[in-house]
Specification:
The chain is an alpha/beta fold. The protein has 2 domains: about 160 residues, Lyase, Ornithine Decarboxylase, Chain A, domain 1; about 250 residues, Alanine racemase (TIM Barrel). A hairpin with a 2-residue loop joins strand 20 and strand 21. Helix 5 crosses helix 6 and helix 8 runs parallel beside helix 9. The longest helix is centred in the middle third of the chain and has 19 residues. It is elongated and about 75 Å long.
């Protein structure tokens, strides 16, 4: 129990009761009901500062990947700190602008931008569009002519590198839908070198999410550096490099975590002498560890060789276990001395067999109305929530020291 701070440094037990910052989770579960998303603002701020201060030779533009969690309280927190933002839809773009982000720090990524979305990005005069295909670039060129507007472009390179992460969140292999094969990059630079509306300022890369070792980053970064040097050698100006995100966080005891200072050092060792503007797009890293879901035990159902602890949070609140087979650590909100019985599956109430969080948990036993905390749910949880089974939407609260702020996005 004393290791819960490994997941969130503002999460701790006091007299066997779980607190987030200075707020008792027993208290918030009574006041706001369950299931309930809870976030530590201090943890988000710390995550950003740790990343920012890990760089010594360069000052990257850190753009929060909004898809990780688009709650307005998070957007306001990061915009107030001066971050940029990485968006993948016009909805994200509009929400970023309406909640304080500087348009000159907005990067529009994504493989499926519609005509309408591209038009909005051009009209809003955002920092840049990260282009994922030759066909997309041709459409942007057509729209720039139609609107008589210029736009900065980074070409997203697909380096055909396996990040060693989960199959469904790998983005840098040739069989993945993202990016442009590196052998096509020079031809695109040549085709658009005289274009007055399309300003290709550089390259972008993102090889996947929840990456737990530096090796895939090292291979990808060296590959992209080689492309930049080759382009410069034949006379093309490359001034910007977007390195994406992908740094993993701790979900359970088996996860390995990248040392952020080592990550920053790697980037500086490879790129600091190139005079590039470096952009980073962390999402999960900034918000994932900040969040937990507080859930109540509905009942414990006895099985033959195991029990089923049924909680009121389900795959509608947290789809990662059903979608990716992800395992989030689950701990009691109040430590008790219940005699351990059979191992128990922690499951949700949704009418799907895949609505399961942990198989055969052995460390804890629970009874009806006990509260549990599902850790590391700040990213890809509430933003992927649904109303499946016509379940009510769960509240989200934000905690900073003794202050609680409720938000409905």
């Amino acid at each position: 129990m004393n290791k819960v701070s490994e997941y969130n440094q503002y999460l701790n037990y006091k007299n066997n009761k779980l607190f987030l910052e200075n707020i008792s989770l027993l208290h918030v579960a009574t006041k706001f009901y369950t299931p309930l998303y809870c976030y530590s603002i201090s943890q988000m701020e710390d995550n950003y500062r740790i990343l920012k201060n890990s760089f010594k030779k360069i000052k990257p533009l850190i753009c929060y990947a909004l898809k990780a969690n688009f709650n307005k309280e998070i957007i306001k927190t990061f915009s107030a700190l001066g971050l940029g933002v990485d968006v993948v839809s016009s909805g994200e773009l509009k929400k970023s602008l309406s909640n304080g982000f500087d348009k000159n720090k907005i990067v529009f990524s994504g493989v499926g931008k519609t005509t309408q979305e591209i038009e909005i990005a051009i009209k809003k005069k955002i920092k840049q569009i990260n282009v994922e295909s030759i066909e997309e670039l041709e459409e942007i060129n057509f729209l720039c002519k139609k609107l008589r507007r210029k736009i900065n472009i980074c070409l997203r390179v697909n380096p055909n590198i396996d990040a060693g992460t989960h199959e469904k969140i790998s983005t840098g292999r040739s069989e993945d839908k993202f990016g442009i094969p590196d052998e096509n990059i020079q031809g695109i630079f040549e085709k658009y070198k005289e274009n007055k509306l399309i300003n290709i300022i550089g390259l972008s890369i993102h090889i996947g999410s929840q990456i737990e070792t530096l090796e895939p980053f090292k291979r990808a970064f060296k590959r992209i550096k080689g492309i930049i040097l080759n382009l410069r050698a034949i006379g093309f100006k490359v001034s910007c490099l977007d390195l994406g995100g992908g740094v993993g966080i701790k979900y359970n005891e088996k996860n390995k975590i990248i040392n952020i200072k080592s990550y920053a050092k790697l980037i500086e060792e490879i790129f600091s002498n190139l005079g590039l503007e470096i952009i980073l797009e962390p999402g999960r890293y900034l918000v994932g560890s900040s969040g937990i879901i507080v859930s109540r035990v509905i009942r414990v159902k006895e099985g033959i060789d195991k029990n089923f602890t049924i909680i009121d949070a389900g795959m509608d609140n947290l789809i990662r276990p059903a979608l990716y087979g992800a395992i989030h650590k689950i701990i009691p909100v109040k430590i008790s001395k219940i005699k351990k019985d059979k191992p128990s599956d922690i499951v949700g109430p949704i009418c799907e067999t895949s609505d399961i969080f942990i198989n055969k948990l052995k460390n804890h036993s629970f009874k009806k109305d006990d509260l549990v905390a599902i850790l590391s749910t700040g990213a890809y949880s509430s933003c992927m929530a649904s109303r499946y089974n016509l379940r009510e939407k769960a509240n989200e609260i934000f905690i900073k020291k003794e202050k609680i702020n409720i938000s409905n996005k």
